[in-house]
Each structure stands twice: as structure tokens, then as C-alpha cells.
Amino acid sequence: MEIFQLQTQICPRFEKAMNILSKRWAGLIIFQLLSGPQRFCAIESSLPNISGRLLSERLKDLEHEGIVRRDVYPETPVRIEYSLTDKGRALQGIFAELSAWSQEWVPFPDARNGCGIDAADE
């Protein structure tokens, strides 16, 4: 089955989707939220190289695009959780395929591949 056709122009919808997902950290934030709702500090600690300011900005971008939902719970102290919308959860298959592709084709520079598998076992 041929899914791709030779095109002279890139579809504007595809271009917009790529622009959304290719913003720095956006894909990793979405991937992290695929496991369920999380608080800001949990997302931040799972992505140790991101600054709080940039994480906040990217979450706002993804919320604006309708991919992430921000839920505020009026407790003391106030609890805020981020989760994926239906639109965001629809990316799960794409991220599963990308994860499988990375396991096969992306070399890891260390003795361990960072995914719980020893490089020697591969």
C-alpha cells in the first residue's frame, strides 16, 4: 500500500503538524504525558535539561494547539495537572512507531542505551 505520493508541494496541514511537534522539547513533553496526567514538577524532573521557563512556555504552546489540557484543582495549595487531550492522545501511535524506530536505528553513545537494555544484549 502506497501512502506517500510524489508531491511538488508540502501539504500545509502536514507542515503545521511538523512545526508543532518539532519545537524544542514539545515531542518529549507529549511523550511524557502519554503515561497520564502529571504535575509540572514531575514533567520537569523527567526532562532534566529543560528550564522551568521553557517548559512553561512549551506547555502553553501545546495547550494553545489543543494537544495538552491544564486542569486546576482548587485545593490548598492549588494543584495543577497537565494531561493530553483526545488530539494529543491521537499521537500515541506515532510516538510508538518513533520509539520502535529509534531502538533499531539510533545509536546510543554510552555502554547502556538508556532504555533498560544493555548494549551488549542487543
TrEMBL record:
Entry keyword annotation includes Protease: no
CDD domains per record: HTH_ARSR
Parts of the chain that traverse the membrane: none
GO molecular function: DNA binding
Domain spans labelled HTH hxlR-type: 11-110
Keywords assigned by UniProt, alphabetized: DNA-binding, Transcription, Transcription regulation
The keyword Endoplasmic reticulum belongs to this UniProt entry's keyword annotation: no
SUPFAM superfamilies: Winged helix' DNA-binding domain
Top-level division of the source organism's lineage: Bacteria
PANTHER family xref list: TRANSCRIPTIONAL REGULATOR, MARR FAMILY
Name of the protein in its database record: Helix-turn-helix transcriptional regulator
Organism: Cohnella xylanilytica
